[in-house]
Task: structure prediction
Amino acid sequence: MSFIIDGKKISLQIKNELRAAVSALKKDRNIIPGLAVVLVGSNPASKVYVSMKEKACAEIGIYSEKHLIDEAVSTEKLVELIKSLNKSEKIHGILVQLPLPKQIKAEKVIESVSPSKDVDCFHPYNVGRLLIGSPVMPPCTPAGIQELLLKSGFNPEGRHVVILGRSNIVGKPLFSILCQKAIGANATVTLCHSRTENMKELTSSADILIAAIGKPQFVKADMVKIDSVVIDVGTNRVNDKTAEKGYKIVGDVDFENVKNKVKAISPVPGGVGPMTIAMLMKNTFNACLDQTGGRNRGDMYNG
Ligand SMILES: NC(=O)c1ccc[n+]([C@@H]2O[C@H](COP(=O)([O-])OP(=O)(O)OC[C@H]3O[C@@H](n4cnc5c(N)ncnc54)[C@H](OP(=O)(O)O)[C@@H]3O)[C@@H](O)[C@H]2O)c1
Result:
């Protein structure tokens, strides 16, 4: 029986430590960290993610603003809103929920967020810093994955890590983090995508396999190495008549069959998802410290 990596439990520890730090910041300096989340349109999954972020802010004591914007908004109007949030003293972190509707120039919107308030590391300036190993507020999902591994005792150092998926949100930044010459990284990283040949050969050689492709139960037991560690990032809705909502959420890994072969595996839900939110809270707190003179860059709160 393999070890189930409990993202809920680990994220709760992080959130509890943050709650204490937020309360101390308020008491000592009368400062409250603030996060603005911008949601354009009515994508049901995005709505769920935004409400989870709002709830986490309330639990920890972080001030939050939710900006619900009409689907038909123009790029210019959206950039205007971001610029006003850049100036707001109450707001230390800005998160634009992706994906954006097709008529919006996503790049323009992302580049309008002040790099110091860019709490999901989307701005090209921060993406560049991440790649060269300069201190940065790391992207939430990849940072959550690294934290999940480290807090569960699976240091990627020296290991062969295979990542499935090369998106700008998960695969590529995760590659950037894990290949760094740094504590908790130093991995040998292989990045796979839809054009990768000999996929099974590569996944079967992974000490740590991380699946982020958005294909329900794609990773089967014959694709993983015995006693490896598997992290499932996938969040896929599949029809399920027995479920109250008519669907259930499954990962990119065939959990039931893979779990019997590996040393450890993260479940969906309850694995990477809660870690992403905990990292967003941590980045918002750190952004607040940065903007109010509370810490030097690189001197991260590392709870
Ligand atoms: N839990 C969380 O907090 C969280 C956060 C973000 C994302 N997610 C989930 O993670 C999954 C991936 O999200 P994303 O935004 O990274 O996805 P994405 O932008 O859709 O990218 C998917 C990646 O997977 C690759 N891919 C697709 N089919 C493949 C196949 N058969 N073999 C190998 N590679 C394949 C694609 O290759 P090409 O580049 O060649 O097209 C692409 O690089 C989704 O289920 C998403 O919901 C979860």
